[in-house]
Amino acid sequence: MTEMKSIGRDGSPEALLSVTEQHLLRSVDDLNGIIKAIKAGDISRSKEVTAIISLLGKALQSALDERTRVEKLRRHEAGVVNDYAIDFDAARDEIGRRLARLRATGSGAAIS
Questions:
Q1: Which residue, of 6, 29, 76, 85, is most buried by count of CB atoms within 10 Å of its CB?
Q2: Domain boundaries, the chain
Q3: pTM as predicted
């Protein structure tokens, strides 16, 4: 089993997702700054574009991976298994109803 470690304040996957998204936004801002400088005629930073694009790709992949983990965790905590949520209260009620029917139609023997 893989242990999830995060650099978020509260240690939750949501915190790590937030940090990853902030990193992604900072990288986009850096890229936009470089693009503006190139458009203004300053081509000295044009070599940084490749590095920033690589960082953007990695940050985007990290954000997508973490979103998948967070969604999987939320679904697990909500009791969703194979795209179906198990409603334990409804199952308990249905079992109670069926036992009551069995008692009502039975020979009087107790069903525990």
A1: 6
A2: 13-83
A3: 0.47
